[in-house]
Structures are given as C-alpha cells and as structure tokens.
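Postdoc handover notes: sequence design on the structure in folder B. Input tokens:
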C-alpha cells in the first residue's frame, strides 16, 4: 500500500528508469511515479511506509502548505531543498517582487521573485517564517526578465492541482490558452467580465466546439468568468 506521497518537479524524474527517495538519516528507499502534470511541471512520487526503518519514521513530517495571496515585497523567506544547486541546501532572502501571472492550459498561476540567486540546478520550495510552504521554485514557468533570480509559483493556486495529483483525480480539460482582460477594456466594450482566448489546442473539446482564437468567454453555465483561474475553478 502507498503510505507517503512526495511532491517534486517533473523534469527531475520524468526520464528516470528508477526512482529513489532519500529521507532523514540518509535513508534511501525506492519510489514510483504516482502522478504528474506537464503543464505545471509537477510530479508525485509514492513511497511505501514499510520500506522506511521505524526509528527514522519519527523524523518524517508532512509539509504544511501556507497561502501566498497575502505575501508582501520585503517578507523574509527561506528556500529549502536544492535552491543553490546543492542537495539539502538552504538559502535566506526576501520577496523582491510579486504580482506576475503566468498562463497555462485552462488556468493561470501567480509568480513571485526573491533575491536568491538562481542556477540551472536550483529546485525546491519557499517557506515563510512560520515554516509554511508559500511557493515552489520554477524554471519552466518563470519569466525571462531576470533569469538570475529565483522565481516561485505561489502555493495558493497550486493547492487544488496538488490535491488532484495526490488523489489521482482526472484533470478537467477544455483546451485553451487565455488572458485575463483589463478592467478598462471591459468597461470600454460594455462587457462585465471575461477572458480572452489566445490559443486553442487542436483535437480539444474547445476546438470541437469551434471556439476560436480571439473569442471572449464571459460565462460558463450562467456563471460569470472573471479570470483564467476563475474559469479553471468553474471547470472543476
């Protein structure tokens, strides 16, 4: 039976012939790829509890997921895991900017930056002063404005994704890329709310329904769509 699920970056494990997970005390046990999502570059590794020595189990605790909506520029943070390219490393820093949005299939995520130096091998999590996870370091979804600083995906909008991966819930798929529409554009065109479609994937439900690039989705089943993330919540 599966007893422990470990969240990690998909690009670190997707081409592996076999997977090993190292816990506290240099305990290394086999793991299997439980679930993954390429859009978010996230994977869940499953480890059987019976493979971990009993005297080491007391050192293993689940990570507490905080929230990233209320983070502020200047907040003190810690980067854990592999932030500077060395396994088991830790870096201290602050949040240097927030408010960026990255758009993925049928959804959008929040990004924030830190003053921690980024390397091609950097990976891991960002935690606040309470030890709560508030972000996951990303390379695949970061902007190109400053490639030398560490960028993280805010945890709040990732929580439903992580839950679905852990529970092997089928992902609801529509098949669009879209953008949130600025309020001034909505007002000028007499639209209350909506999202602007920038791309439609071939052979997707959206494509079959003849949704086109340039369309604006204002409601789904009578529910107003105010953002890409809101659209994703309605889909789910």
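Designed sequence:
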């Amino acid at each position: 039976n599966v007893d422990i699920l470990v969240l990690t970056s998909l690009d670190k494990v997707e081409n592996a012939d076999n997977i090993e997970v190292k816990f506290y005390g240099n305990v290394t046990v086999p793991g299997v790829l439980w679930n993954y999502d390429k859009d978010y570059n996230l994977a869940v590794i499953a480890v059987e509890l019976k493979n971990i020595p009993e005297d080491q189990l007391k050192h293993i605790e689940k990570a507490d997921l905080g929230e990233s909506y209320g983070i502020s520029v200047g907040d003190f943070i810690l980067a854990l895991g592999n932030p500077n390219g060395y396994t088991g490393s830790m870096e201290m820093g602050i949040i240097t900017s927030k408010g960026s949005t990255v758009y993925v299939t049928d959804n959008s995520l929040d990004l924030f930056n830190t003053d921690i130096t980024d390397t091609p091998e950097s990976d891991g999590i960002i935690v606040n002063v309470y030890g709560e996870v508030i972000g996951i370091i990303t390379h695949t979804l970061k902007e190109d404005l400053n490639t030398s600083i560490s960028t993280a995906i805010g945890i709040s909008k990732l929580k439903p994704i992580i839950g679905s991966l852990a529970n092997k819930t089928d992902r609801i798929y529509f098949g669009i890329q879209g953008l949130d529409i600025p309020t001034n554009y909505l007002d000028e065109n007499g639209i209350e709310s909506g999202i602007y479609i920038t791309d439609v994937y071939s052979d997707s439900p959206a494509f079959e329904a003849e949704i086109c690039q340039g369309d604006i989705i204002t409601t789904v089943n009578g529910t107003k769509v105010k953002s890409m993330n809101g659209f994703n919540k309605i889909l789910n």
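Context for whoever picks this up: The chain has a mean pLDDT of 92. Don't rerun without checking with the PI first.
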